[in-house]
Amino acid sequence: MLNLGRMLGAGIYSVPGVILNSVGSVGLLFVFWLLAPLFAFGGLMVYSEYASMFPKRSGAEVVYLEQAYPRPKFLVPIMFAVTSVLLSFSATNSIIFAQYALTIFDVPITPERQTIVALAVCAAGMALVALSTKWSLRAVNILTGLKVLSLVFLVFTGALVLGGFTHISDPYANFRSPFSGSTTNPNSLATALVKTNFAFAGWNNAFNVIGEVHTRDPVRTVRKASLLSLLLVACLFFFVNVAYVAAVPKDEIRNSGQLIAALFFQHVYGESFAGKTLPIMVALSCFGNLVLIFCQAVGQTRALREIARQGLLPYPGFFASTKPFGTPLGPVCLKYFLTVFVMVALPARDAFNFLLDLASYPNLVFHVATAIGLWLLRRRRALAGLAPSKYRARHIYVYLYLLSSIFLLIMPWIPPEPGHSDVSFWYATYCVVGLGVLAMCGVYYWLWIVVLPWLGGYTVVEEVERLDDGALTARLTRKYHPSAADTDNGERQPLIVST
Predict the structure, then answer these.
(1) How far apart are alpha carbons 154 and 172 in whole angstroms?
(2) How far is CA 53 from CA 56, 85, 385, in A?
(3) For 323-361, how does the pLDDT look when each residue is reduced to its tens digit (9 = 90+)?
């Protein structure tokens, strides 16, 4: 359920039109919905081998990279911490909800209306999670069931269309000459792959909590569950796209923006009750994913709290506090205000595509480092005389994961064909901003770990503490040089004082 709840989000209702506009043909549209789970499968095999090396460590990628790249010290957790904070917005689901809500009530979509509705639903999701973790998780479980139901119903409706049981006169029209109009432009192909990857985001969720899986073989359990969820979602998504293509003319799909599901229901059910009410299921699914993303602040709090407590982020009390409602109010509010900022700052027509692209770009750098790091760890383990993992990933899977990430890092810099850019401003803006976020991480690391210790006359060292439950954890402290120390020059002080 961890993986399913995250993957069954707004992506399948919002990106098919953008993908078709990028690739130009129905044939390539289907190819990309097959490629994305294939690349995710390669990543899953990579994660499985990493997890077998560190089966008691939750955290997934940040743990794996920290082990693969121990130098420069503390760089990996700092990069993850700062990136997580700066990109912790939930705007995409809010925007999709706003567009579908306005469509349901036949209200013309304008930038002002879209932004107002998106801000309102974002505030509602934030308030639900901030007031009660228990009730927000209940809402997520109910709405996750609704997501599955809506997708199954959509696939069933598509089967009725193909079977000739609806008023769609020629459901196979779009399937003739499926590769007619295909593009070979690398930028357009990269845009399409970014969008399909967005729909499958969450295939690795279970690896984040593998240390809390209490079975005989936690790696096997998580690996099997992840494979099954990926297979199920891949099949659902592929047949949903078949349904879209069967019911909606190709040109309308290309120009649908994020409203392909609404167009599908209009074409099949017209102005009937079903045609009006079924898009409500889509809007509620988007709200469910919005609440889920805010709920992930509960899980993110654990990671951010530990990183801040160790001295890698300021104000650890802000990240760790559960006052006054017993919920992680600080991180949830931070996520909300960042979401509000990006929705207000960006043009409404470009906000969804830009934010989707931006959130993916810095993570691609981590994906490349993860794939290469696996080979580095294998070599070190071989030199240390350790046996290979029984979940050793084949080289073809590592290459799939690595090359797909490199492709998405490089190809967006190539100019797209006229009319095929998914934003109205410079096409590679998100690449520059994404690299800027990583550069900020580097500057933060340099100031916090290098410059301030040099100016303050201390060295940042790592100490191991034993918690109340007996677990061991690391903590960064200041070790002052004798010339700069006070009278008790042997004392070590916390790197950050909680206020």
Answers:
(1) 17
(2) 9, 28, 14
(3) 777 776 777 787 788 888 888 888 888 888 898 899 889
